[in-house]
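Q: How would the C-alpha cells look for this protein?
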Amino acid sequence: MGIKAGKKIRFGCHNFLNSQPILIPLLERNGNELEIIQDSPADLALMLRRGELDLSFVPSIEYARNPEYSLVNNISISSLGTVDTVLLICKTKMRDIESVAVDNRSLSSILLLKILFLEKYNRLPLFSYFEPDPEKMLLSNDAALIIGDKSFLVEKSKETNAFDLSNEWFQITGKPFVHALLCVRDQGPIDGNIIKMILSSRDAGLSSLERICDKTAQKAGITKGKCMDYLKNKIKYTFGPAEKEGLQEFFSLAHKHGFIKKNPELKFIST
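A: Here is the predicted structure in C-alpha cell form.
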C-alpha cells in the first residue's frame, strides 16, 4: 500500500548539525503535510522498520538490509574525505586495537569501522556499545567511536590518536561515503509535492548557511566559522553519480565481508 496524497506523512530526521540545512527550512515551511520526528540515526532506523515512520533519513546500511525500502533521489548526507564527525579515538595505533567502544546512536559508521579493520588488517577487535561518552568509553577499551556533534567536543591529547573514518574510507576507495539516505517504507506513490518541499528546503538551507550557523553553532559547541566550514565544505547534500558509486562500494564490501546477504540495486520512488 503506497503513501497517498493528502495523508499526513510521518517524516524522520536525525537531530545532528549536518541535518540542519534541511531541517530548519523544512520546519519553517511545513504546514500540515508532515509530522516531523527528530531522533538519533539508530532510533530512526528502528522506527522506520517498525512502520512508525513513512519517510526518513536513515543510516545508509539500512537500505541494504530492508528490501521493501525505496530511495528519494537527488538527496543524501555524504562526505568526501575528512568530515570531523565520525571519529575513532584511540589509546594506541589503529592496527593494535583489541577493543572498541562504539556510539550506540550509530549503524553505518560502526559497519564502516568493521570494514576498515577487515580491509586494512584482516581482523576485527571486540566491539561494545556505549552511550557517547569518550572518557567512560576509553576506561575499559582501546578505542572509542563517536559520531555526530559530540565529535566536536572530543578533547584530543598526546595520549590519544584520532582517526577520521570518512577520510580513512576515502584513502582506501577514493570515493565519497554516504552517511544517510532518505528512504520510504514501500514502493507505492508518494505526493511529489512532499519531495519537492524537502528538496527545496535543502536548497534554501544551503543558500542561507550564515543564518543556519547563527542558529546552530553555539548549540553544537563550535564557532560560526567552523560551522560554516563543516556545512559548506565537509558535508555534501547531493546524491549524484559519485555518491552512488561510493554507496555501492560500501554495499559491495559489506556483502564481501558477510554483513549483508546481497548487494542491493538502487531503486527510487516514483512521485
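The first strand starts at residue 9 and ends at 14.

DSSP finds ten helices and eleven strands in the chain.

Upvote if useful.
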